[in-house]
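Anyone up for a design puzzle?
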């Protein structure tokens, strides 16, 4: 993920506040202690993936300033920190964090080698904090309400981490299931997103598929009834049989047919997602 190089870069400023800022402040405060990042932590990332050699000058300057880079927008910062926090808390929800869970986490996101140490620091601090994971999920859900693809991708990763240490039957621990369900609700994702994540079929953030809600001209927070009413209204307005009562060219007629097809396709996608 390209965001990590920017998150842990050398420029000053940190834009995220609230629980995300508190978590990062705790992590950086811990790292600012002399050599603390290089000391092994029981059952943590640093013990399983120790730093090789001495910290470089850029890292030392980073810790001394006790600030994280803000080279990207606040929403991306929030996502990066929240991603680590939720993965860390899920890994610990059923007991001590183990190598299988950490390996799954690293495989899901493929952190650049230059940033593995900093991500590990944040992972360990998030794992050990006692704050409620749902507050991270709620803020992420609000921030990405207009584009839930990153949240769906994260849900898929959380399922993979949960299954990393599952037995041959692949059954999840009850605490893991509860965690995933609460995160799904806090993200504000539809039922279809749960099924996709559970089956390992996340929605690609770079998908070229047009947004169904944007086509209907309605927000993702609309109720099932509001979406249904909006679809019916658009169909009445753009149906070729209705427009045929007005003078129109053949090209205009084809455009009307295409628009109705897009409206119906958007409605079908929303129905599948919401299981209507």
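Challenge accepted. My sequence:
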């Amino acid at each position: 993920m390209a965001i990590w190089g920017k998150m842990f870069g050398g420029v000053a400023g940190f834009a995220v506040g609230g629980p995300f800022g508190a978590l990062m402040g705790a992590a950086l405060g811990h790292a600012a202690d002399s050599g603390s990042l290089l000391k092994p932590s029981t059952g943590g990332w640093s013990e399983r993936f120790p730093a090789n050699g001495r910290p470089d000058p850029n890292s030392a300057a980073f810790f001394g300033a006790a600030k994280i880079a803000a080279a990207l927008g606040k929403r991306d910062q929030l996502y990066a920190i929240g991603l680590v926090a939720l993965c860390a808390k899920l890994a610990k929800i059923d007991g001590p964090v183990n190598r299988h869970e950490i390996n799954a986490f690293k495989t899901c996101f493929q952190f650049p080698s230059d940033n593995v140490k900093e991500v590990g620091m944040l992972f360990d601090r998030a794992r050990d904090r006692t704050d409620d994971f749902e507050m991270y999920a709620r803020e992420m859900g609000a921030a990405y309400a207009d584009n839930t693809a990153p949240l769906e991708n994260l849900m898929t990763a959380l399922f993979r981490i949960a299954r990393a240490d599952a037995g041959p039957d692949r059954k999840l621990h009850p605490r893991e299931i509860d965690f995933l369900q609460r995160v799904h609700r806090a993200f504000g994702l539809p039922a279809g997103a749960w099924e996709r994540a559970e089956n390992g079929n996340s929605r690609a953030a770079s998908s070229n598929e047009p947004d169904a809600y944007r086509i209907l001209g309605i927000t993702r927070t609309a109720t099932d009834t509001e979406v249904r009413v909006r679809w019916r209204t658009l169909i009445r307005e753009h149906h070729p049989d209705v427009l045929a009562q007005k003078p129109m060219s053949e090209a205009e007629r084809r455009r009307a047919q295409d628009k109705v097809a897009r409206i119906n396709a958007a409605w079908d996608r929303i129905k599948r997602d919401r299981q209507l």
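A detail worth pointing out: The chain is about 65% helix and 0% strand.
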